[in-house]
Amino acid sequence: MPAWASIWGNMVILFLAKSDPILGAPAGSYDAPAHGVTGFAFNIDGTVPPGHLRVAVATAENDGTAAYWDGATMNASPLDGPGHCEFRWSEVGGPMYLGAGAPPFDPTKILSIRFDMTADTSGPTPYDFCVSKLLLLTN
After folding, report:
1. Of 92, 98, 103, 128, whose CA is between 20 and 30 Å from 74?
2. In sequence order, what DSSP letters do the residues of 7-33 get, joined into one string?
3. pLDDT tens track for 45-82
């Protein structure tokens, strides 16, 4: 059985919490509802292999096993190619692989939004994409 906790594809991280000046890591969390933020939008261009990208929203409670967009029901976020994407916090859950043991997602304690390329045992997964026009939604 692969050591999944040690195997990562790649990730791009957008920290929403205040950064610690020494470590560069979040020193606190971001309370999205308190700022009227209901979700997240972005554009993605290039090659996104189906079933390999998770748009994760890490919180203090689930940084290592972050919930992600459609994570309660799918192994990856529902990206089917380039274009505009958006989701609301109510669509963030999981991760699916934890099943009923997944902690509930709490948008009052967000550390970061991540684009996680997942690894698998079938071999390399080529990708070449760009994320742009990041937007916190307020509707």
Report:
1. 128
2. ---EEEEEE-SPBPTTT-SBSS-B-TG
3. 998 888 889 999 999 788 778 999 999 999 999 987 78
